[in-house]
Amino acid sequence: MNVVIHLLDLFYRRSNSNVKEVVPLEAAFFYLVRTKTVFSGLIYAMCACAVQYSTHPMARATMAGGQQSLDETFSKLARVSIHDWAETDRHLDYLRTYCILIDYDAAKCHGKQAWANISISKTLLQLYRAQTQPPLDEVGILERIEFYLQIKEATHSLGHGALESSVLSQTVAWASHNSDYTQVGSEQRLLDLLRFFVRIHNYNNKNNPKAQVVQPWKSGSDFRTLHTEMEEYTVHFPSTPSLDENDTSQDDIEYTITEAMCSLVCHCCDIALNLRFLPIPEPNNGQGIGSLSTCVEFPGAPPLFILERRSRCEASAEAICRIAQDVVQGGGFFHYTALLGYCSVHAIFVLLNQLHRQPKHQQLGKVVGSLKFAFTLLAAVRRFYAPAASWLEIVFRAHDTSTPLTHHRSTIGEAFHSYLGRYVDVPEPCFVPLMPSADQSDILGSKAKEAQASPDESVGRGVLDVSERQNDESQQPAWVQSYAGHLSEDIEAEEIRLLRGESPSNAISLIGSSGETVVGQDGSIDTLMNIPKFWRKYRRRQG
């Protein structure tokens, strides 16, 4: 029983904001203390979600003869409890349990199960409202559940253009509200921006340069339509909110964090819309890291159009790193863990492109510092959200100068179909994979062993733990071993600071400020340029 109470406490302190609203703390207190009755499936689901945050020995143990972890045991018990819908007076509890399991399954890369549960929950919500007149105290809860399902439907649609979703039929909310949209709350605006994000993803997935009737820089094109809608939102909300240290109440803090996330997603939408127009740097044929590379430009596009696309991407990437840092320092890492990581991926694409294009003599300290923060944040997200492991692999492959380029094997038009279309066999990152890949299954399976370490130790054993990749000295020269140790210590230390809610070091905290950013002890651009080499060796050893 003590373990259950411990896990329930972690659920309310560590789970994301939206899922906690499904079972408000006041409601849980009422169940446990006032009525002394509670639906066991709901408790099981909450415990399953919270296990990953716990360092309790029981939470780290394996159950059923070592065949399944504690979180898997809790999740199976929760699923069994909602299998029978005969108890009509339990419909609200069933709804809450499904919602929490959606969050659990998404974090485990089980998108197919999560998507099915979203559909079941929406149907169950309609049935519950149709069969009975909900009491007044449940009306608000049902609205929160409906909002939660809308958020999940939007995020699960990112990267899955083939999924039929009601999100794609939504009109632009800020256009229909006109001037009144400034009165819309931050949570609703975040949902509207996520839906707009899905529409941009859908446009990118269906975009075919050969079949374009209107070129994207011409008026009347689909690109211009989305661009205009993007501009309409920024007219309503042109500035980025800053976290005020004087905010003391939890409501003020959560409101400010949600405002910041709206701005973060807005910048991510801007990048997603403009990303494919970035130039393709050609390999520099051994001329050295940071040497001036020739670039392939989007075919037929006016120079000013390309310049604007590049400027918007670079400005948004810098803004994402700055806002994400503010959110983390303001204690919002666990409020929006997955969304922070997904937006960081888009910023990394832009920063890497900028790093590959510009010669070494230019002032790139700020770019490298932003990359360091984004990589560190993404590694921290991976600790609690398994799909982030595939995001890291994708950015490493895009960063690797040995990755084959599409236009070397096909046409230039094919290379600009999407941003990652310029690389051969590099997939687009999806927010939630429908099923875990073999690599993700291995990662999930290894977490029980990883959990035997202390929290600070286990955090550093992600894909950026380079020190474990230097055991085979026959494959690595001395300078690689020396560098690997430095990089591992640097990245792990920053990741641990993030998870503890502490302020990052100077190398991170200067991101977004004027002047150059200090990058580690040596200030070398090679720090970011060599990560893929260790990644490939790590992958070979793991394989």
TrEMBL record:
Keywords: Metal-binding, Nucleus, Transcription, Transcription regulation
GO MF terms held by the record: DNA-binding transcription factor activity, RNA polymerase II-specific; metal ion binding
Superkingdom as given in the UniProt entry: Eukaryota
Location in or out of the cell: Nucleus
GO cellular component terms listed in the entry, alphabetical order: nucleus
Annotated InterPro entries: TF_fung
Descriptive protein name: Transcription factor domain-containing protein
Source organism (scientific name): Bionectria ochroleuca
